[in-house]
Amino acid sequence: MKMPKTKKLYCKKCNSHTEQKLKLFKSGQARAMAIGTRRNVRKHKKGFGGKAKFVIKVKKQTKKPAFVAECPTCKSKRYYVIPKRMKKVDMGA
């Protein structure tokens, strides 16, 4: 889907609609001390427990794209999610 780089969205801080910049959301680095990471290390990587089997889980082929919208006046950022699944998103259409 082709997506514009700017879109007129509501800003809670300014209490008005402004032309906001959109950029594709990228998740940060995973935390090493999160419970999921610790559980994975304990089950699959630590000690002499042999090789643990991974449960085969069929993943969905597409994702709902998430964007970060930035207000030009107050510089506040918020998520903007399109509630439809799509394989590819092109910015700057």
UniProtKB/TrEMBL annotation:
A cellular component annotation (GO) from this entry: ribosome
Full protein name: 50S ribosomal protein L44e
Organism: Candidatus Iainarchaeum sp
Family to which this protein belongs: Belongs to the eukaryotic ribosomal protein eL42 family.
Keyword Hydrolase: no
An MF annotation (GO) of this entry: structural constituent of ribosome
Lineage top rank: taxon: Archaea
Pfam families, sorted: Ribosomal_L44
Keywords (A to Z) from UniProt: Ribonucleoprotein, Ribosomal protein
GO biological process: translation
Family annotation (SUPFAM superfamilies): Zn-binding ribosomal proteins
